[in-house]
Amino acid sequence: MELLSEYGLFLAKIVTVVAAIAVVVMLIVNQSLRKRQRGELRVTRLGEQYKEMQEELSVALLEPAQQKLWHKAQKKKLRQEAKAAKAKAKAGEAAAATKPRAWVLDFKGSMDAHEVGALREEITAVLTLAQPADQVIMRLESPGGVVHGYGLAASQIQRLRDKHIPLTVAVDKVAASGGYMMACVADKIVAAPFSIIGSIGVVAQIPNFNRFLKSKDIDIELHTAGQYKRTLTLLGENTEEGRQKFRESLNETHDLFKGFVQQMRPQLNIDEVATGEHWYGTQALEKGLVDEVGTSDELLLGLMQSHEVIGLRYLQRKKLLDRLTGSAAESADRLLMRWWQRGQKPMQ
């Protein structure tokens, strides 16, 4: 009996120690997550990546003996450069003047434009360090989405324009509707030959289940204060007056969209291009919707001799639930994109 008692006491001590360790670990992890909750800014030297790729390919084409000599010479060169840099640092010499920078941002927009949060951080980071000779390249891909989301995204890009930092938007696939609203803020738009551009229009649709509910003897009561607090509804009976007001709201939004594009690109014949239609890159150039036909790859390669090309990306740490719901949202966006490519038009 005494042995069992001592054994039980021993187990209790072990459980207590394990629990205490688990609590400490949880506190440390939680503190670490809190520090990283805001996210992190990831910087990539795209010019160096390109140079490394070029060297790897060049070396791969050499004979084995030549490869050995190249690697030997490269090691010697790197040692000499490291030694020289260390000597300069000890002597307190200022770093040599660097090339102007080309900051590269990527925006792949979803229907709700939630990526604007990361865009805000990236643009703020650029504004804190940008020099007069610097410029920004934005690789943009979006079929559009909600008006307020893409309106905010365009306003974020406007911050660069207000600070007189040259901005080029490169469209490899699609910048339509709200995506084009963002693109037109740029000083220059470069579009791939078969990229989708334009769709300056507004669309909204809403199902109505009122007749179905009536057939099941289900009544819906909707009470509002304000004549147009609700125009069209999902469940209630819609009126012609409500439909007319809804159409008026769409037209008002379209007029605002047209006015914004005209302000950003005054050379456009806005009545000709604001029909809701989209055009491919070469056609968009003829319409004045873009300034040049080309890919983002050629654009960046052309800058690497004269600029230090730096990729900037803000990564927000997500909770498990956000990651799961985010994956579902991305799947829905991809499905919507496929539907749109089959002939559907995006929202504004």
TrEMBL record:
GO (cellular component) term, any one: plasma membrane
Localization per Swiss-Prot or TrEMBL: Cell membrane
Enzyme kind, highest EC tier: hydrolase
Keywords: Cell membrane, Coiled coil, Hydrolase, Membrane, Protease, Serine protease, Transmembrane, Transmembrane helix
EC number: 3.4.21.-
GO annotation, biological process: proteolysis
Stretches assigned to the Peptidase S49 domain: 160-309
Residues in coiled coil: 36-95
Membrane spanning residue stretches: 6-29
Residues annotated as domain Peptidase S49 N-terminal proteobacteria: 2-157
Domain of life, source organism: Bacteria
GO MF term set: serine-type endopeptidase activity
Pfam families xref list: Peptidase_S49 (PF01343), Peptidase_S49_N (PF08496)
Family classification: Belongs to the peptidase S49 family.
Name this polypeptide is given: Putative protease SohB
Gene name of this polypeptide: sohB
